[in-house]
Amino acid sequence: QVQLVESGGGLVQAGDSLRLSCAASGGTAGNSAMGWFRQAPGKEREFVATINWSGGYYADSVKGRFTISRDNAKVYLQMNSLKPEDTAVYYCAARRGYELGYSVTDYDYWGQGTQVTVSS
Hints:
By secondary structure, the chain is mainly β. It has strands at residues 3-7, 10-13, 18-25, 34-39, 46-52, 55-58, 66-71, 74-79, 88-94, 109-110, 114-119. A hairpin with a 2-residue loop joins β5 (46-52) and β6. The protein is globular, with a radius of gyration of 13 Å. It starts with a strand and ends with a strand.
């Protein structure tokens, strides 16, 4: 069983940056695909970014502003030029397989989430 713990969220102003971290433990997540999703109030959880051995891939809404990276059992999401519409709870996710995942159902394990609030 893989456990995921996110950190790094907070309250920032538009244009600021934040770096989210996700620590994986309890299983083999080092070579599997991992991802970041977010969920704003009243909305469905949506894909933000995913990464595997081939690299990182992004939702159009964050492309050019966010960067996903990993270091063994940790995954990071560097968020630059933040906008108020980026406000959401951000979730780290891991899947058993190596293929990239772009939907909620692609992932087997989830963290508890970390709040990101961007004020205008």
